[in-house]
Amino acid sequence: MEKFIKLPVLVFLQLILIQAQAQQFIWANSYSINNTNEVAALTVDAVSNIYTAGVYGASQSLPYIGNCYLQKTTSGGQAAWTKYFSGLVQIGDIAVSDNELLIVGQANGIFNYDGITCGIPVYHMFMMKVDSAGILLWIRTDDTKNGSGSNLVAGDNGKVAVNFKGISNSGNFIEILDPDGNTIQSKQITAYSAGIVDLAYFNNRVYLNGAFNGPDSLVVDDVVIHLPAMEHAAFVLALDSNFIAEWASVDTTINNRDGRIVAGEDGVYAYFSVLEPPFVIVNVLKKFGFDGQMIQEVEIPFFTTGITLYPDMAIIPGLIGLYVNNDFDFNVHEVILFDANLNLIDEMNVHGPSDLYSGQITGNHEGFCISHVHSGDLNFNNEFTLPYTGIGKRPYISKLSLSEPTGVSLEVSPGDELIFYPNPTDHIIYIELPEFSNGIAGLRISDLSGKSVFQANLNSGLSGIDVSHLIAGLYIADIELPGKQPIRKKLIVR
Predict the structure, then answer these.
(1) Rounded distance, CA 174 to CA 463, Å?
(2) How far apart are alpha carbons 300 and 328 in whole angstroms?
């Protein structure tokens, strides 16, 4: 059965403009740090200098521990300087505050940073600040905390929010630090079975993404997080400006180690791997109001949940970006973009030999930056190729830039010759095809098992197709144009 809705030209032009407010890769560079294990952290400053850090030359067993690098890159992708750590070190996270860089990590004893002896002769957390030239300003150590897997988020007035683990990964310490590393506010979440995996810091409030597996309820101040009837809890917990728990939202998960959270003017956004009946793992992105009301929830368009290890998420005005591994052979990573209302805007692929884990993403007013490691040539969304040279894996950075609306031109690559919007949808999907004079265009929608659930012929121009009869979930839409290669799109029905 075919269900079509014809649209006026005005609506078509509005859709074109919405689609054009996407991003595009504008450059990518690889850096001569051979045998790099990871890009553990990525951040960008107000003038678009980019900072990366991670372990290099270590064994491939997890967690990566060994010598580390810290690199500053200009806004155009040229390495400005690289500093090195020698010793048994792990990088947790980095963040820029007032044009200075904070680093948090874990060390197995004394280590060396840029020729300076640092740390203490025991297993300890360290936090350090360097200036824009990489010169060490101060270092703080603590052998009661674990800096591996920690999170840093810069706030206003030079303040920074940080999440430390406890020793043996027991409990979490949430702190607000002043520019000199002194603790202004702190909170310990001590439940053995609870873990904070990410935090956001916005308008002097802290938002935590965590997991909890009982055996009893988790109580933080007056907020109670109940254990679900089956498996574990994935939760968002909000702390007010006085560091008192304000509200919580709970879902069901098996393991929320990959949870992410960001916050900005439009709200709080949390990524989870959740468990839905009967026993299906689904990756979702949720939008919350600052009062804790869940405003929107969408399913992330992955082909499978089993390969999205350690995704990263960032926010810039009006856009939410994720960077994820989306291929069993680790040869496809994706930038997935949503607008502030969680409409799917774009999916951009990076093809080529990389790593099983997802990379890093960050952003500012100019757009997003991504970073990861690679061991072969990379193709960036068929826009350009980054060649590989070197030994082992090497880190790379790519910058995406906001593209301006350019009108109604369809003279583009085969994969972009149509408008496919909105996605996700709960009713109508709009498809705009270029003009063709011979043959028939066809649409086939299949579920993830490959079973066809909808077929139709398409005309050139704009058509609206009713998909409200489809069960909510992820589908594959194959569109065949006369004399051209078939085009495949992911379709999410809500």
Answers:
(1) 51
(2) 17
Q: In what order do the strands lie in the sheet with 183-189?
A: 145-154, 160-166, 172-177, 183-189
pLDDT tens for 418-462 read 677 777 787 888 888 877 767 788 999 988 667 889 999 888 888
- How far is the C-alpha of 466 from the C-alpha of 19, rounded, in Å? 20
Closest CA to 301 of 420, 210, 216, 387: 420
Q: Are 488 and 477 in contact (CB under 8 A)?
A: yes
Beta bridge partners of 286: 270, 297
Strand 394-402 to 384-386 pairing:
unpaired
Residues of the chain with CATH 2.60.40.3080: 4-11+414-493
Torsion 202-372-399-128 (CA) sign: positive
Residue range(s) in the chain whose domain bears CATH number 2.130.10.10? 22-402
Query: Which amino acid, residue 277?
Result: P
CB 206 within 8 A of CB 163: no
**Band of residue 404 on the pLDDT scale cut at 50, 70, 90:** very low
- Per-residue CA distances from 426 to 304, 337, 343 (Å): 21, 19, 11
Q: Residue 50: beta bridge partners? A: 44, 73
Q: Residue 437: name the closest of 459, 412, 415, 463 by CA.
A: 459
CATH of domain 4-11+414-493: 2.60.40.3080
Kindly report the CATH class assigned to 22-402: mainly beta
Token couple for 481: 């144009």
For residue 129, count CB atoms less than 10 angstroms from its CB and return exposed for 0-12, middle for 13-18, buried for 19 or more: buried
Picking from 310, 321, 371, the residue whose alpha carbon sits closest to that of residue 347 is 321
Q: Write the DSSP symbol of residue 63.
A: S
